[in-house]
From TrEMBL:
Plays an important role in the elongation step of protein synthesis. The keyword Ribonucleoprotein applies. GO terms for molecular function: protein-containing complex binding; structural constituent of ribosome. P1 and P2 exist as dimers at the large ribosomal subunit. This is 60S acidic ribosomal protein P2B. Belongs to the eukaryotic ribosomal protein P1/P2 family. It comes from the Eukaryota. It comes from Aegilops tauschii subsp. strangulata. One of its GO terms (cellular component) is cytosolic large ribosomal subunit. Keywords: Ribonucleoprotein, Ribosomal protein. The keyword Nucleus does not apply. The lineage of its organism: Eukaryota, Viridiplantae, Streptophyta, Embryophyta, Tracheophyta.
Amino acid sequence: MKLIAAYLLAYLGGNSSPSAADVKNILDSVGAEADEEKLEFLLAELKGKDITEVIASGREKFAAVPSGGGAIAVGAPAAASGGGAAPAAESKKEEKVEEKEESDEVSIFPPC
């Protein structure tokens, strides 16, 4: 990530095609080291490409990735089977208890 961040900083600084030396200078300025192999791979992958198009393409790919919606679907059948009614009742009782505790705390202080 630091290589990509340094590359993008160089790009945002006006360098439309940052070199390995440019990326290394940015990383050196903050005391970080560049992995030569990863840096060369990054530069080879981005060579001749418009960075805005690369980012847009990545966003499209990322949007297609599922993001954890399965947990809700798994929990729904359990609630439909009747097992979910008891926890709901418990939470209502807890809310009532909390309300009473709060009202006790408020009644300690005289009205202003």
